[in-house]
Amino acid sequence: MPKQTFLNLPEDKRRKIVEAAIDEFSACGLENASTNRIVAASGISKGSFYQYFADKRDVFNYLMRVIEEEKKNFFRDKHPPSSGQDTFGYFRWMIKAGMEFNSAYPRLNQALVRVLFTEGLYFGPLFADLRQRSVSALTAMVTQARERGELDPQVELPLAVLVMETWSNAITTYIMREIQQQADVMAWIRLPETQSKIDQLLYVMEYGLRNTTPERKDS
Amino acid sequence: MPKQTFLNLPEDKRRKIVEAAIDEFSACGLENASTNRIVAASGISKGSFYQYFADKRDVFNYLMRVIEEEKKNFFRDKHPPSSGQDTFGYFRWMIKAGMEFNSAYPRLNQALVRVLFTEGLYFGPLFADLRQRSVSALTAMVTQARERGELDPQVELPLAVLVMETWSNAITTYIMREIQQQADVMAWIRLPETQSKIDQLLYVMEYGLRNTTPERKDS
DNA sequence: GTAGAATGTGACCAGAAAGTCACATGACAA
DNA sequence: TTGTCATGTGACTTTCTGGTCACATTCTAC
Questions:
Q1: Nearest to B208 among A145, A207, A213 (CB)
Q2: Chain B hits for A204, Cβ within 8 Å
């Protein structure tokens, strides 16, 4: 919730501030970010900053809101795969669409991932609602899978959600780590090797690591 | 590498400093830890601190060395399960032994996990060697599994390592999160529910989420 | 034009950080 | 007792932080 003065600002000035904040957050995280540096990098005065935002948390929340909006738009435009699809197929599609989105806004995403995951805030109380939304979406998906008989009946529902959440997070952080070293991120994401890596990962999520082909000895 | 003066210190004074450092690191992480607070909590003077250690990083490295030593002892005493065991069984044993170890040193482990994972240092260059050792141990294990035909031949070796690493880390952070809220950690770890949760998780790692019993339609 | 509101500014404040250093204390040897 | 050396101390410096505020500038309505 930035103040009105910020929203009234000319587009390019606003952008400059946002860019500076993104740089700062992705370099230092939330706790260690310095308003002084953000101010210096964006070429505004200290006083102006506090006329736009309450504090650096406020800036971060604003970035969160922006990216959530963008993500919504992105997923709305990108039509989900043909209905009648298997739930695992749908999850695979979602993961890949998420990857494309992340690579479309690499710096912004990097800042958020850095703060949420490597600063541990994702699991903290601050972003409990964000996580709650993500978990309940996954729960809906898993419930559907169970109803369709796609899910191993031995696996309890919350566990399946945990597995999917873990992989979703792991893939996100993995992508973000790669993005730091890749020149053309979009190209890298669409590389057959990259795609096949993710496919394999999701294959393991579905079928596990164990070789079940020769004979299955249940203990 | 604390200085000799620290190592000459009487046992209880040394312990007090270590405890204070553990508290500080687990509460604030490495970056945000304050030597001032550590000094105040351990009842020594600022000057003494710098006579014992170079800086807070030095303290942290010392804690790392201590825990590594303890872990080595712990695993040496706890005999691995009967040989001839399946690799997945061995991994399962290792995970559980690791859990027991973590619950035996909950505060120290919490400090390290907090710094390594939630501060993202585990993936940074600072602890690259630590991670390297862990990855190469897993690689050896996976290679053995492949040779024995236990590993799904469709899964590439580095991917299997990644999967195991991810779960190992996920379980560790999960345990640490729980430990913060549990009174009797050891009891909690040995609870049938806890054990079964971990078992289920590792089951999913082996066999995946998908229901393969009714009929297997390969696409 | 001119009044008045909105916006912009950077010197300034208090607090905390890491790290230093001249000095105090204590232990032991001669 | 005296001298020497290791250990202990906290006031001090420097540098940073988030945040404020009296004042300057710009914009808008008249």
A1: A207
A2: 152, 155, 159-160, 163, 205, 208
What are the C-alpha distances in Å from A103 to residues A96, A109, A202, B96? 11, 8, 19, 37
Cross-chain Cβ contact A209/B154 below 8 Å:
no
B84: left (phi over 0), alpha (psi -120 to 50) or beta: left
Tell me the per-residue pLDDT of B82-114, one tens digit each, with 9 for 90 and over: 767 789 999 999 999 999 999 999 999 999 988
pLDDT digits (tens, 9 = 90+) for A147-159: 999 999 999 999 9
Distance CA B217, CA B219 (A): 6
Indicate the range of A95-99, B117-121, B151-155 predicted with least confidence.
B117-121
Which residues of chain B make contact with A207, given a CB cutoff of 8 A?
152, 207-208, 210, 212
Q: What angle do CA A156, A158, A160 make, to 5 degrees?
A: 70
* Single-letter amino acid, residue A46: K
Say if residues A57 and A141 touch (Cβ distance below 8 Å).
no
The total of other beta-carbon atoms located within 10 Å of residue B204's CB is 24
The Cβ of residue B158 has, within 10 Å, a number of other Cβ atoms equal to: 13
Phi and psi for B151 in degrees, rounded to 5?
-95, 135
Q: Which two tokens stand for residue B137?
A: 């141990």
B113: closest chain A residue by CA: A120
Residue B149 DSSP label: T
Number of A to B CB contacts under 8 A, please give it. 129
Q: Kindly state the tokens that stand for B43.
A: 């009842």
Q: Which residue in the set A32, A114, A151 is minimally distant from B209, CB to CB?
A: A151
- Its pTM stands at 0.88
